[in-house]
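Just curious: can you write whichever protein you like plus the matching structure tokens?

***
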Amino acid sequence: MVEDGDVVEIHYVGRISTTGEIFDLTSEEIAEEEGHDVDGMDLGPMNVLIGAGHVLPGLEEALRDMDEGDRKEISIASEDAFGERSSDHVQTISRNEFKDHDVTPRRGLVVEIDGRRGKIISTSSGRVRVDFNHPLAGKDLDYELEILDVLDDPEERVDAVMAFYGMDETEEVSYEFDADTGALNITVPDDARTPELEEQLTDELELVKGVDTVTIS
């Protein structure tokens, strides 16, 4: 069974329990079977670092009871997924605020305000109501899971976690890993470095089996 520090390559399909509607998936084959136009879709297996919270807690817990090649179907109640809907997350905002950003508000438009994404649910002459609830709030979910691979090479695990953050090696970002000592050294441009990023990367990469120390410069 997989455990904290393992990196697993998975396929999954997520459905809304009440309707069977797919809201997320990784498999191009299943997407085509379901009649989705796969052009432009970012599909493919996902790498998950167990213990890092990369997926919903219910999914991570299910993965802990699986091994390479295993498949499982699970259900997650709304309160353990994206939470219940709350009227506190529906706000009325002045139409002038949208005008200041050259946005014409209309029902159904997805907007980002103060770092939060929401959907406009109604408009009037001077006011706009925006729903900031997660689109899946209040919905029970069903998942089909499959573990394709459990990465057994520490360097592959590091590569997978860096790629998860879009920081696979480029001209701007580089890293060196010494499998003998478990030392990982990462170089990140000054304009991309923040204390929050450094703390999160360090905490997560030190979880990876085979990694003992992380240095970011």
Summary: Residues 187 and 217 are 5 Å apart (CA to CA).
